[in-house]
Amino acid sequence: KLMAYNSDVKQSIVLTADGSFQKYVGASATNITNCRIKSIVVHTSAADATVKLYDEADDSKTAAALKYSILFGTAANETWEHTFPGDGIKCSNGVYCDLANADHVSIMFS
Question: pTM, whole model, 2 decimals?
């Protein structure tokens, strides 16, 4: 039996600093809103890298909007990919990323 998929998964534009994840609509970059994050890819640039994802359209970083947080170890130049179980992480307002010591972050979303 074939699995049925109800949506296409897309990759965000890569972030190299704090900011809202974006996607291309035609040739224009636009913020991602109302999505489910299916997976994340992170490349660390120094020890103790952190990545936090918020369900927000701006840089408010409200504690109640925090959806995901990860702290890396003492090594730099690690690449890490994580697939979220089930339907992924639901973000209704946008996906703001707060990162430290990470120089490449992208999400796969639907």
Answer: 0.91
